[in-house]
Amino acid sequence: MRILITNDDGINAPGLKAMREIAEDIAGPGGEVWTVAPAFEQSGVGHTISYSRPFMVSELAERTYAAEGSPADCVLAAIHDLMRDTPPDLVLSGVNRGNNSAENVLYSGTIGAAMEAALQDLPAIALSQFLGPENWNAPDMFEAARAHGADTIRRLLPLMDTPEAGYRLFYNVNFPPVPASAVRGMKPAIQGKRPGTGFSVEPQLSPAGRRFLWIKGGDQRARTLPEADAAVNLDGYISVTPMRADLTAHDALSDLGDALS
Predict the structure, then answer these.
(1) Distances (CA, A) of 48 to 8, 132, 151, 167
(2) The whole model's pTM is what?
(3) For the domain that residue 131 is a member of, what is the CATH number?
(4) Which of 73, 104, 113, 218 could share a disulfide with 93, CB 3.0–4.6 Å?
(5) Measured between alpha carbons, how far is 138 from 146 in angstroms, rounded to an integer?
(6) How does pLDDT run across 126-161, given as a tens digit for each residue?
(7) Is 215 in contact with 254 (CB distance < 8 Å)?
(8) For a divalent metal cation, which residues are the binding ones (predicted)?
(9) How many domains does the chain have?
(10) Positions at the binding site for a divalent metal cation
């Protein structure tokens, strides 16, 4: 199997090293693992592409490239340039440092890369490691992802064999904020919403007296509905959420039709 890995934390991120280990396990002795990742951290860029400017791609080692662009740019660079003659069989994005559950999904460059791969009609999985008191200061904060990543992916691969009409399915996987030995299993989960939690800004004056705004995150320990991703993670389970790029609110179409008729 030929696997492309990318992330949004950057080419030197420790989570990318964990992702490579997982990918090499999946690819097997005769497989290939290609890395095309942002040269610098691109957290929070979502599904951004560098539509209005070119970006440079540098080869760092065999099958390893750093791109001065977004995670979605990295997927496009790999598929249409670096790997155009030997396209990947699977795209893996992550392992992200921090969860991409609930509202974080909408901002995540990790998710953006997997979504772009799905738009390019390739099987794709985004993987993220939830952080909390039990693993934040651990020697390896990615231990749960390292230990359970390959098995999780293998369970999903049979569901990804057949290309779909319309927007292709991809998967969002979040590992719980616990040691590997404390992971209780895997659960399918909907994307949740943490009540009263969201991004905001915090002003700060520089030493020169200039006013800047820092983006400030919300409480990541807030619980979603029990069947949703963040709650599943906080209960010690790996959450697996099937996703598509289709943002249509299908449940609202009937009422909209009545209102517009």
Answers:
(1) 11, 28, 30, 18
(2) 0.96
(3) 3.40.1210.10
(4) 113
(5) 14
(6) 999 999 999 999 999 999 999 999 999 999 999 997
(7) no
(8) 8-9, 43, 96
(9) 1
(10) 8-9, 43, 96
